[in-house]
Amino acid sequence: MSNPGPPRIRVVDLETAGTGQSDVCEIGWQDVVLGGDGRWSLSAERGARWVNPGHPISPDTMAVHHILDEWVADAPYWKDVAPAVLRPDGGVVALAAHRASFEQRYCSPRLTGGAEWICTWKCALRIWPDLSRFSNQMLRYQRRPEGLVHEMGLPAHRALPDAYVTAHHLRDLLNAASVAQLLAWSREPGLLPRVPSGPERGKPWSALDDRALQSLATDRDESIRFSATSELRRRCQQDEPLATAPAQTSFL
């Protein structure tokens, strides 16, 4: 039997044609592997492939990633590209992406083989709550991850460079918390460290009164609802009286 290699998590990033359909036009990936010393690091396994979206790329989207229709015209379709990238030989512990809900719209369980996902955005909120912003590129320049080769992370908004940058965040997250913990956080909405908008913008949740929290707990944004509800729950638990042991054992 061949050596399956070290455990790995594959970071993926997608660029799309911007029409709201199944319109992937590029996929990039970068693997993060577990070493014998128990530390995670980037491997040499990375790449990108064009995908034919089946229709023209919108000008608005082209202005973001600069991918031209003629570059993808002869590429295979998504259903033919995805399985080999999302289910590589040797398997993966999980797949990962920054704001992974976007990638999960296209990388269905049928294409991934049911792999679990780590969202580096949600996990960054937990591990680095003192940072001011949490986009992939803002994390890059606020944190300046060790070993990130600047030129390999460019141009931004292209699949391989973005996956490469995300992989550095994932590596550092994995070396700060367990895979199980990152997966658990990724299944929940984002736990925002501060109120993101409105009259209370920028305040930590602990600074809000109960009335403001109850109002935000009904917000349309699931991460705002989750964050407000989590603070309310914390306060309820804090206010619960501690159970006391009886003065003497009862024999009845």
Describe the 3D structure.
It is a single chain. With 252 residues, the chain is α/β, with parallel strands linked by helices. The chain has two domains: 180 residues, Ribonuclease H-like superfamily/Ribonuclease H (Nucleotidyltransferase, domain 5); 52 residues, no CATH class. The chain contains eleven helices and five strands; from the N terminus they run βββαααβααβαααααα. It has a five-stranded mixed β-sheet, sandwiched between helices. The longest helix is centred in the last third of the chain and has 18 residues. It is globular and about 65 Å long.
Any key phrases for this structure?
Nucleotidyltransferase, domain 5; Ribonucl_H; globular; alpha/beta; five-stranded mixed β-sheet; 252 residues; 11 helices
Question: What's the rounded overall pLDDT mean?
Answer: 93
> CATH superfamily of the largest domain, called what?
Ribonuclease H-like superfamily/Ribonuclease H
CATH class identity of the largest domain? Alpha Beta
So how many helices? 11
Strand order of the largest sheet: 3-2-1-4-5
Going by helix content, strand content and strand pairing, the class is alpha/beta
